[in-house]
Design a protein that fits this description.
mainly alpha; Cytochrome Bc1 Complex, Chain D, domain 2; two-stranded parallel ribbon; 6 helices; 2 strands; binds heme C
Length: 161
């Protein structure tokens, strides 16, 4: 587990930072934050071009477990895991590519120390978030590369409307 983690965790309280940030770092960054991670995501793929979705067992349970411990150490001071696991989250992400989400987290989070974890640790956190949402684990790990993760799209669960 140590090897996955490249920096020490600092606990911090989550502040309502949107406004702080907007004034603190200027208009460009402010508007980026408002658009959020989906702005980094390429347009959703037409259905017939989709090769794999998060319903196809694209991470392992073991990877999700590692992601959980990374989440607890580096994310839970500001986020509860339920923020990233709900019908609303699945709806919002559905059809988008996993690589865009991975890149957003990787280059923006933890908010007080962006890009401070290894690519593998970010992939593990994404696996954990998929697991939390009820997507099935499989035999292969999510790769820690956006180019490959962009071949996988988010989905709602099969029994969701
Ligand atoms: C120091 C506090 C802090 C830490 C630690 C932190 N975040 Fe964030 N995170 C934020 C803030 C502030 C936002 C901006 C959006 C908001 O205010 O909800 C955000 C936004 C996000 C979003 C986008 C939410 C959305 O609805 O679009 C994701 C995903 C996310 N964080 C994941 C993570 C992950 C994964 C980690 C751990 C690797 C992490 N964050 C660590 C403060 C933090």
């Amino acid at each position: 587990m140590e090897a996955l983690i490249e920096s020490g965790g600092e606990t911090c309280r989550r502040e309502r930072k949107r406004t702080v940030r907007r004034f603190g770092t200027g208009i460009l960054f402010g508007s980026f934050l408002v658009l959020g991670w989906s702005a980094l995501d390429p347009a959703p793929l037409p259905a017939q071009e989709v090769e794999r979705s998060v319903l196809d067992g694209v991470f392992t349970e073991e990877q999700a477990n590692r992601g959980e411990s990374t989440f607890r150490t580096f994310c839970s001071s500001c986020h509860s895991n339920s923020e990233f696991a709900s019908p609303g989250f699945r709806e919002r992400t559905s059809g988008r590519r996993v690589g865009g989400f991975f890149e957003y987290i990787r280059f923006n989070m933890p908010e007080d120390s962006p890009a401070s974890l290894s690519a593998g640790a970010y992939a593990n956190v994404v696996a954990y978030i998929l697991y939390l949402n009820g997507f099935p684990p499989g035999d292969e790990e999510l790769p820690p590369r956006a180019s490959e993760l962009n071949d996988i799209v988010f989905s709602t669960l099969e029994d969701e409307p």
